[in-house]
Amino acid sequence: AQTVTQSQPEMSVQEAETVTLSCTYDTSENNYYLFWYKQPPSRQMILVIRQEAYKQQNATENRFSVNFQKAAKSFSLKISDSQLGDTAMYFCAFIMGGSNYKLTFGKGTLLTVNP
Amino acid sequence: DAGVIQSPRHEVTEMGQEVTLRCKPISGHDYLFWYRQTMMRGLELLIYFNNNVPIDDSGMPEDRFSAKMPNASFSTLKIQPSEPRDSAVYFCASSLATGGAQYFGPGTRLLVL
């Protein structure tokens, strides 16, 4: 079974600084996708970024980027120029390719951006 | 394009009552998912559909829970009878057949007294 581990239950960062959230996963599959979701206090689950396992290039979305290390099964999220609106719970998630569409979520990291 | 739409956004009911949660997926998406989120158990997948057909309902807690998808643009999750332990935020999500990204609705916050 696939597992996703987020080892940092809580983190904080000063506004405008950079922060990295860590995520590791365990799978024997070679074809899969990884995601970061953000859940602000409104409870809405928002897709932040997506990475295909077969792509070596790290995904980037504006201030959000990932460091995908396939051999190490690591998928960290870097947030640059942190903003107050980035305060949220961040979930790392994994899904296998093919016909299995079950998302496996980590337990989340609560990020607080301080003014 | 509108995102996933859920209704109601908040529901307060008394134990024993029937509760129906509604979801409209993103147009063109082949897959629809129902999740439940609690502090204790985190996000749990309850059931998912492909082209309106239930594929995996192994996450449905018990017979009190049922889900239907009568057409590509509408799904319901019903709890009958409801119990206090069903209190949670229920999310609906949808995705395309490829790529795996699931897009979530705003959720329904359910409180069973």
Structure description:
The complex is a heterodimer of chains A (115) and B (113). Chain A is an all-beta fold and 115 residues long. Chain A is 0% helix and 52% strand. Chain A is built from no helices and twelve strands. Chain A starts with a strand and ends with a strand. Helices cover 0% and strands 55% of the residues of chain B. In chain B, strands 2, 4, 5, 6, 9, 10 and 11 form a seven-stranded mixed beta sheet that branches. Chain B has a four-stranded antiparallel beta sheet with strand order 1-3-8-7, with no helix packed on it. In chain B, a hairpin with a 2-residue loop joins strand 5 (42-50) and strand 6. The termini of chain B are far apart. In chain B, 35% of the residues are buried. The mean pLDDT of chain B is 94. The A-B interface holds A 33, 35, 37, 42-47, 50, 91, 95, 97, 101-103, 105, 107-108 and B 31, 33, 37, 42-43, 45, 48, 50, 55-56, 89, 91, 93, 95, 99-104, 106-107, 109.
